[in-house]
Amino acid sequence: MSGSDSSPSTLTKDDIRRYRENIRDEVDGAALYRALADAEEDERLSGIYRRLAETEDRHRAVWEEHLRTAGADIPAFKPSRRVRMLGWLARRFGADSIAPIAMRMEANAYTMYDNQPEAVARGLPRDERSHARIFREIARTGFGREVPPIARIEGRHRAVSGNAIRAAILGANDGLVSNLSLVMGMAGANPGSNVVLVTGLAGLVAGALSMALGEWISVQNSHEYFRHELQVERDELDVMPEEEMEELVLIYQAKGFTEHEARALADRVFENREEALHTLAREELGMGEELGGNPWIAALVSFLTFGTGAAMPVIPWFVFDGFLAVVGSLVLAGLALLFTGALITFYTARNIWFSAGRMLLFGMACAAITFGIGLLIGMAADI
Questions:
Q1: In this structure, are 217 and 259 located in the same domain?
Q2: Residues 301 and 268 both lie in one domain
Q3: Closest Cα partner for 333 from 316, 350, 345, 352?
Q4: Is residue 3 domain-resident?
Q5: Does residue 166 contact residue 157 with C-beta atoms inside 8 Å?
Q6: E-strand spans in the chain?
Q7: Which of 27, 31, 113, 364 could be joined to 125 by an S-S link, Cβ 3.0–4.6 Å?
Q8: Which residues contact 251 (CB under 8 A, 6 or more apart)?
Q9: pLDDT digit string (tens) for 282-324?
Q10: pTM score, two decimals?
């Protein structure tokens, strides 16, 4: 037993209970994979499910070994009612009917062993991550099945250009609606045009800075996480290259290759260590060129898009005051809301008038609510 494993003398009742709960989870996992394997018509995918079930069996054996060493009874768990029901659904409606549920279960189990030293010593967390990644790959590629054109477009482009355009449009809309609401709230309280103008400018700058900082942190954290995971992958490649190759084979099979084709591809990749490392990072961790964005550029774009939207309701207050400024602010912001609503249709493919009108309605509703609140506060202050 590994030096980090618990010895019989140090085991507690909580340890025993934890081992038994782990066994129950592994029994459920193995049963679910076998149900998928039995219901799956594609022999290659069925084989992947069976190999995953065998991994769960090995995990269960680890915990049974711990219980046996501790002199504790080994429970004879049966699959839970939920898993039995999923198996029934798979037999009646096919493996695809429950595969998304299995994928969510694996995603939830992604870190289940991270804080259990006995599991870490035996490499169980790595196996759970592998299972989750394989399921994601099956879901993403359809395992070589015919995938609708929109899904293929979604898979290739949404994470990069689609999300960037969407983020820019929604960032501008966020600045527009939030600052319009702020300006209208102040206008309702009627503290004076100069106060409304200063408040609008402060909201613009504060919101844009907050958005920029948030975007910078998000991109920077992605870079740091990538570097950490790449180092973990490098260490695993040094310590257990055979297991890493086997995982890559499984992922290639999940893409729809035969086992022979997948193994030939993996062999070719592993001829060069650096190529193997970056391929594993891309295929296992889903980390590619989209993580190479510059956090400063992301922050600047976020600042500009939010600031542009937030400027719309403020501009009229430089020229007018009182009622005319309120009307000008609503008109200019309304036009901007229509425009951003129309732009969003490039992402959603909804009717342009529906999308623009909905954006205008929601934005004006927010402005009306905050104007009303400001009006009530102003009236109360005058009493």
A1: no
A2: no
A3: 316
A4: no
A5: no
A6: none
A7: 113
A8: 133, 134, 137, 283, 284
A9: 766 656 544 556 788 888 888 999 999 999 999 999 999 999 9
A10: 0.53
